């Protein structure tokens, strides 16, 4: 069963480009991990949210990659210094 996520992030407008650049750095690191399938970095048309997506071969592969993202500072507990409101993360399983 594949495992994935969709995360909505809300960076301050003055930090949006910096936030997107950091997301791309994390995405590139994820691409190198075992069990990785895909990753995406999106911005809503109104520019309010940065949306990240990821898909993995299994939940274990995701958890290993999430550990890497945490080491890179991409998944802090609470808000990052660039965000104005808490992120919303939704986990997904294939059926």
UniProtKB/TrEMBL annotation:
Keywords: Monooxygenase, Oxidoreductase
Descriptive protein name: Antibiotic biosynthesis monooxygenase
MF GO annotations: monooxygenase activity
Oxidoreductase keyword on record: yes
Keyword Zinc-finger: no
One Pfam family of this chain: ABM
ABM domain span: 3-91
